Amino acid sequence: MTTEIEVELVRALPQGRESLRVKVPEGSSVGEALAQGAALGFTPATQADANCLAVFGRTATLGTRLHAGDRIEILRPLLADPKQRRRERAGNQEKRNPRP
Under CATH, domain 4-96 is a member of which superfamily? Predict the structure, then answer.
């Protein structure tokens, strides 16, 4: 007899969030849970980028093994590198306020 665990698939949006709880066999991976979500019509699971996944905020892969109660986060890809944006802002600030 295979034991099932429940996990949650979540995608955050600027105006809210979408989520779905699915039951998968114990020892399942993130990829298997996404496939289960897609089979149930959860659109974000079908559009998930394998490079933009996390489990409780920690980077995950399609092969990451799940535990009961895990939350799989389907993240949006970054539009810009945060470090580069900070450098650009710092450079612009120096141009506006030159040091004496």
Answer: Beta-grasp domain (3.10.20.30)
